[in-house]
């Protein structure tokens, strides 16, 4: 029986896949990095996907708070002298005072101005609020509705009334999730030779929702 020579034993092993060792390490690095970034977000979106799917079965009791009062005389001149006709923020002094009275941050939100009334809508995730001020009498009415934590997270899932910062986060999260999925696909290509069920399972994930949509959704 012949023994391998030094020359034959030192011959490098040839990979049978299309990825070099350096490329594979890069794919694995991007895959685990994107999975770490997306982990908590994907858990949150999965859980809120279930709560959204069963929203009609989850009973919640909205909590409503209201305030009806009169503005101090010093603010009446601000309303009377204002010439805004369509959309503009409340004067800063008035916004700060109303924030203290209602417990809702008014800030520089734009209100709808008409000849008789100033109306400010303040929707948020899992909540809604509005403020109406009579420009002639100075009476204001504020109402706030809280629909609970489940509704709050459901609205985060949908990006409903969440503001620009959260919408940017959703875009960045979607990009990170795409990186996670695409690098996962590359890893499937790498290991498919040794795992015969790889492509049947991928096909199941593709065709099952397609068949359900075509046959059972009307």
Could you explain how this protein is built, in words?
With 218 residues, the chain is an alpha+beta fold. It has 2 domains: 21-57 and 157-195, no CATH class; 63-148, no CATH class. It is built from 7 helices and 6 strands. A hairpin with a 3-residue loop joins strand 3 (110-113) and strand 4 (117-121). Helix 2 packs across helix 5 (149-158) and helix 2 crosses helix 6 (163-191). The relative contact order is 0.13.
β-strand amount: 15-25%
Number of strands: 6
Number of domains: 2
Structural class of the helices, strands and pairings?
Answer: alpha+beta
Strand order of the largest sheet: 1-6-5-4-3-2
Average pLDDT works out at: 89
Helix content: 40-55%
**How many helical elements?**
7
Distance between the termini: 72 Å
Low-pLDDT residue intervals, each spanning 5 or more residues: 6-15
Biggest beta sheet summary:
6 strands, antiparallel
Shape: elongated
């Amino acid at each position: 029986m012949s023994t391998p020579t030094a020359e034959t034993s030192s011959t490098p092993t040839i990979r049978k896949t299309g990825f070099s060792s350096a490329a594979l390490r890069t794919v694995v690095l991007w895959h685990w990095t994107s999975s770490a970034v997306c982990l908590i977000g994907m858990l949150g979106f999965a859980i809120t996907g279930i709560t959204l799917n069963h929203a009609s079965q989850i009973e919640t009791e909205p909590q409503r708070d209201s305030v009806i009062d009169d503005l101090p005389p010093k603010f009446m001149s601000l309303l009377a002298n204002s010439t805004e006709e369509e959309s503009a923020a409340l004067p800063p002094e008035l916004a700060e005072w109303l924030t203290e009275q209602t417990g809702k941050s008014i800030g520089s939100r734009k209100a709808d101005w008409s000849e008789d009334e100033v109306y400010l809508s303040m929707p948020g995730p899992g909540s809604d609020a509005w403020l109406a001020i009579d420009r002639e009498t100075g009476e204001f009415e504020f109402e706030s509705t809280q629909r609970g934590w489940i509704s709050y997270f459901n609205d985060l899932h949908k990006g409903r009334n969440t503001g620009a910062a959260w919408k940017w986060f959703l875009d960045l999260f979607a990009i990170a999730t795409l990186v996670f999925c695409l690098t996962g696909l590359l890893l499937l290509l790498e290991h498919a030779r040794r795992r015969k069920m790889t492509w049947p399972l991928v096909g199941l994930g593709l065709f099952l929702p397609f068949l359900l949509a075509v046959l059972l959704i009307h």
